[in-house]
Q: What sequence folds into this?
């Protein structure tokens, strides 16, 4: 009998697993179902297409269905939606959307990578015609049409997270008048409010209207109604984060974990033998707290998919978990975070010291030296680094990688102080800003 | 009896130790002797003053003697040279250079931070009037005078290391015709030749004449004579590295270690009770090989000085050693290295795989994405990362910090593959280039 691996989902979580399995010597049939027209694209690049920095949506496509067929013998079926999984019969009911017919496909192994969808809380009007989530190239294409039709003079972004703020900036570049409405007291909720406040200042200086601590109560044609005001709008963007597409798995009886994401073990196995999951539809584990968390990022999806693919091919790999790293560029600022923030540290029961410093991205005397703020959380008594946040000018964001690496290694503030980090005047002060923060943390730790 | 700490050397290795000791509660008298006129300056910034990128030499001064006196009660004596150490009497013979008189100063504790001097191999004419090392602000001032007097139309740099190449670029900016003569087959000997070759290409494209595999046999007034040619010159720069100023310590009977540097333990103690050393005059330990090495860099000097200062004040600190990290910016290229290169790995007896990749500094589709090459050495069997080198466009250099951190933590290529490094299109491809290299290394390791 020839084996069949069936993959549900044609983006990173699915196709990277399929590709890895094939490259690792899997010689069974691989069928991949994707309900949309595209495979493997960089959703993170969408804001830069909207802004015009990137020329066309096609540039975001990493690999086309035809390439998967030709190069990796993967039978990619776009426009095919998985409707239901039958665990007893080991079959999936598939809908050919164009031909409007349904068929049943058997599998020996199943890999679920159904991704996520933009959160749509039950606000009246949220399903209206000019309300867009930004998740797929299809979403992006609609927004681009609106831009080109000149139908977005006034844009409202609901939610002040990464994607929301990136899109706010993109529409400013398109000469739109942009308002961001954020329910919390501060934007960038993955940062602590004191760091998020710097982002808010930069956004406002850039000409973006920011209403924080304000709840959207309704979306009407031509206006967003908040707890405080009515904001006229041509276009509404949802930037409220995403939630996993886990219904298919849940309906079949596969275990669901944190935040409604599919539960997986370190090998990306679901609760059912021979069924795997990776990417935005499934959960991860925090290497800081040891707890399951939900992180919908392309980096995580690709790593989980790699692990799943190796295991599916009969190899052995485990996913160690995520530090919780994320960066973005917003107007003049670069922003990064890793590990836990104060809210998360408290929730996990950590006692910690907070060290915060302001320094320069280059040697202070070197042309182009900008400002960088670093905030570190270090565990009390042990000094173990629990989390870090950076906000600053050019050269700031990628510094978070040192902290992500140090956290993964279980390093303490003292370890960080003595790390042999690189220095040259065009790139850094003599003590790198992350080490300046570590020195501060260490002295606080020593002071008890 | 009031205690006295005597510090010999007014740059980082000395003053950072004195400052740390004072801040850590040391209430004894601190006297610091410096033969030159300046304390605590950034010698690494000199090329950028020569090039004109940095306005004045004064900008490189971190803290003046008067500031040390006022803020930290450190009795800094500039223009005072330590002539000899008497270990039996616990005294130092001091020469007041301006007044041309000598006196004797007792100490309870002595901290030696005599720094390093440019290497001057026995080439005829190397001590001639237009031959400059670049170590002190005084050296820099002489070079600046030459620039301003228009006396450097033709410049020859002997040695193709960091400082030599940085100065070559600086003089090109001053419209000089610059020739670099390097004895080895490739420039940047701290990199492997295949990576150094990229630097050579960039330097030549920048208009610098590069003669590699060529030995300087003599320096004459107006010309440098090599094994192959005579190069006319107004000014000769020595870029042959430095050697420790350890004679004072050696003459007193203090143990000398590798490369003629002062031997110290992990607390920065010399072989003699109550005598410490830090900075370019003393040795370090490689965290990769475990062997003593000599690294003359400001980052190392400051960390060693911090450790010495804490211990001198009665605290406890140890210096864990160096990864061997260094970066620079040369013309259009950023260059970095950490850990061991192939030559060093072989010398230490390591068996290793070499993974080399070429990628982009940003997402390939994002404007401004440049090229980056990453070379990784991973130990055979264990996969432990032994060293890394990066050469590329803007955004390249500081990526070496992740590798330095990973090496310090003893991480393997597989650990590096699954690190939660940051990604956003303006900063990185989805798999950071260092992780692309780690994937390559891992697959080579798995293949045996």
A:
């Amino acid at each position: 009998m020839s084996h069949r691996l069936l993959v549900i989902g044609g983006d990173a979580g699915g196709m990277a697993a399929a590709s890895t399995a094939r490259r690792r010597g899997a010689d069974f049939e691989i069928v991949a179902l994707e309900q949309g027209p595209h495979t493997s694209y960089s959703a993170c690049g969408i804001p830069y297409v909207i802004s015009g920095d990137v020329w066309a949506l096609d540039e975001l496509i990493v690999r086309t269905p035809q390439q998967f067929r030709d190069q990796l013998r993967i039978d990619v079926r776009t426009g095919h939606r998985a409707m239901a999984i039958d665990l007893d019969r080991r079959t999936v009911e598939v809908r050919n959307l164009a031909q409007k017919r349904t068929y049943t496909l058997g599998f020996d192994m199943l890999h679920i990578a159904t991704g996520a969808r933009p959160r749509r809380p039950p606000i009246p009007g949220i399903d209206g015609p000019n309300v867009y989530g930004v998740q797929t190239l299809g979403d992006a294409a609609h927004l681009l049409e609106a831009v080109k039709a000149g139908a977005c003079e006034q844009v409202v972004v609901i939610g002040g997270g990464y994607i929301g703020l990136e899109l706010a900036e993109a529409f400013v570049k398109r000469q739109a008048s942009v308002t961001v409405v954020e329910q919390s007291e501060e934007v960038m909720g993955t940062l602590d409010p004191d760091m998020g406040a710097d982002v808010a200042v930069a956004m406002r200086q850039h000409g973006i209207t920011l209403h924080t601590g304000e709840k959207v109560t309704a979306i009407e044609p031509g206006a967003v109604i908040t707890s405080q005001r009515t904001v006229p709008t041509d276009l509404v963007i949802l930037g409220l984060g995403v939630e996993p597409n886990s219904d298919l798995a849940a309906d079949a009886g596969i275990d669901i974990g944190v935040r409604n994401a599919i539960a997986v073990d370190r090998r990306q196995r679901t609760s059912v033998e021979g069924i795997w999951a990776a990417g935005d539809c499934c959960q991860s584990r925090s290497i800081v707290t040891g707890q399951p968390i939900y992180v919908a990022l392309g980096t995580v999806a690709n790593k989980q998919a790699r692990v799943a693919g190796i295991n599916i091919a009969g190899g052995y790999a485990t996913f160690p978990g995520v530090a919780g790293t994320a960066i973005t560029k917003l107007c003049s600022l670069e922003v990064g975070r890793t590990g836990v923030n104060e809210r998360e540290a408290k929730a996990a029961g950590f006692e910690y010291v907070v060290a915060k410093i302001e320094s320069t991205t280059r040697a202070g005397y070197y042309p182009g030296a900008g400002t960088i703020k670093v905030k570190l959380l270090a565990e009390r008594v042990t000094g173990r680094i629990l989390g870090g946040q950076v906000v600053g000018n050019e050269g700031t964001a990628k510094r978070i990688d040192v902290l992500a690496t140090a956290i993964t290694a279980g390093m303490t503030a003292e370890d960080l102080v003595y790390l042999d980090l690189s220095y040259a005047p065009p790139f850094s002060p003599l003590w790198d800003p992350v080490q300046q923060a570590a020195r501060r943390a260490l002295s606080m730790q020593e002071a008890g």
In short: Residues 4-45+54-116+242-312 of chain A form a domain with the FAD/NAD(P)-binding domain fold (CATH 3.50.50.60). The mean pLDDT of chain A is 96. Chain A touches chain B through 64 residues (CB under 8 Å). Chain A has three domains: 4-45+54-116+242-312, 120-238, 326-446.
